[in-house]
Every structure is written in structure tokens, then in C-alpha cells.
């Protein structure tokens, strides 16, 4: 027997709210309303991520792997800040701290985004038990 076509997989994101948020983003961009653009972008990223986190099947070790991903992701803004100073000759010999310090305000956001993206979009690997 085949599965009925009416049933929707609970792990797929909800398309109507995503499309509505995308429409709000396009209109806000057109009228140049910066706060509405930022909130629509945040919603466009957060909505499918939170939906996936809440509906996914958790496996053993996901929390620890997510926290490790947050630790790794928190270093990305610092690395990008350091790489942004490589075009200056004096920074090729020794590290210029102004680029590294420019990325410091983004560290907590990257540390939060890393585990969320891992928990939302990470797949169950071979040999991992589903709880």
C-alpha cells in the first residue's frame, strides 16, 4: 500500500510561513525599512531552524556535538578578522590585533548560531543510534 498524499513529513519546513516572510523581506527591502529587513532576515533564518530543531529525531551525542560546534563557530569571527588584515604588509609579519578585535562583538552570535545550525541541519550518521 502506498502512503496517502495528504500526509506531510513532519521534518520538512513549513513553506507558507517561509514564503510570507520572504515577501515581507522583499517589500521591506523595496521601501528601505532597515529594522523590518533585519527582523525579516532573522525570522527567515530562525523559522526553519527552530522548526527542524523541534521536530527532528535526536540521537545520542547530539548535545555534545552541538556544543562543540558552538565552540568552533565562535572562533570564525576572530579568524575572519585576522584574515582581513592580511592585505597590509606590516600585518603579514606579525598579527595586527585591530582585525581580531573587530570580530569580537560577533563571537556570541556565532557561538549561538553554530549549535543551532548543527542541531537543525545535521544528519544522522551511520552507526549512530536514534533515541
TrEMBL record:
Top-rank lineage group of the source organism: Bacteria
Transmembrane residue ranges: 12-29, 36-54, 66-83, 95-121
Keywords (A to Z) from UniProt: Lipoprotein, Membrane, Transmembrane, Transmembrane helix
Name used for this protein in its record: Lipoprotein
Organism: Archangium gephyra
Organism ancestry: Bacteria, Pseudomonadati, Myxococcota, Myxococcia, Myxococcales
